[in-house]
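Record RNA helicase, 457 aa.
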Amino acid sequence: MSDQRDDGPRSTFDPAADEIETNYDEVTDSFDDMNLREALLRGIYAYGFEKPSAIQARAIMPSCTGRDVIAQAQSGTGKTATFSISVLQQIDINLKECQALVLAPTRELATQIQKVVIALGDYMNATCHACIGGTNVREDLVKLNSGVHTVVGTPGRVHDMITRKALNPQHIKLFVLDEADEMLSRGFKDQIYNVFKFMPSDTQVILLSATMPEEVLEVTKKFMRNPVRILVKKEELTLDGITQFYIMVEKEEWKLDTLCDLYETLTITQAVIFCNTRRKVDWLTEKMQQRDFTVSAMVVLTSTLYSTYLYTLYSTYLYTVYSTYLYTHYSTYLYILYSTYLYTLYSTYLYTLYSTYLYTLYSTYLYTLSIVLTSTLSIVLTSTLSIVLTSTHTSTYHYTLYNTYLYTLYSTYLYTLYSTYLYTLYSTYLYTLYSTYHYTLYSTYLYTLYSTYLYTH
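=>
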């Protein structure tokens, strides 16, 4: 067995659209007649299947015998169970290696397939892992290294796991392409080819597609050996068991009345009405509710309601937390910084100004007074000296008293006035600036995140 497949032509039929037709007509109408494992049969019936659908009755048997299969099937026909049963029938439960690889165009479909495989293989203890983008790569590495029987994934992530050598393709028996037309229309052609190159040369290929455009036919020609073709003509691509009819309505404004007439004529307990625009959905919902129909708009109203709710809830929460934090942090910081600065500046200025003024005023006054007293009383040198000393003592006393008083009074006044002013000014400014910034940033982020999430789901 080689590590990689040969890229040479494999199909023996010409993929011309007018030559495509079913070449396998055998039908098995019961799961019990398919020679399936007992544990697998238990899983099939436990899942709720009673009898095979049209595609299952034709495609399961050749798939289980190792034939390459092309099956044309739409969603809702049981195609996922078709190849899931084929995979579970052929894997070796005792071998903890990837033995089947399923590629799907979307993460959601890959996850859905994984759930079906796990459910059908519940009594077999079969393991299945979904390798899809948007998930933690490390989790994929751990899961794949631990060993799984089946891997379902999108082409990009699967190719990445193979190149990282986390996914070993040497034991792969089945290679399944689900919704091949959709994958190719999304531009996965090169990635599919790159994955296929790693498959062993004898790998069985199963391809399922709702339509068979030229690109899909090219893939079948390159990948497959004499495949079983279970195909239908384009005009027969309908879902079995569903009655379909249409009504020609000449004018757009008549559609509402026609729809209401259908509800009055037919017994309809549940229904889904599809419109081509969101605006039309809202309009139709409103009109039908006005006519007393119990109608609700899916996605549009739900998305709006929940995204608005979450926007309000989370933006309010973040507004409160961040604005409170920034208000406390920055306003306290500026209060200390600016009030200390102004306290030092203005109190020093006033201390110097007023103390110098009073010192000069009072000391000059007392000095003059002492000289006058000395000259008037004509006191002897000793008494003159006593008066001078008294003058010095008194002026020093008054100097200390008054400049201390004024220092306390004015510096306290200015400290209170300016520090309060700056505290209010700057803390309000920063409170507004930063809380608004964070409110806008985080609430917008959460609004976008949650509304997008809810709109998508």
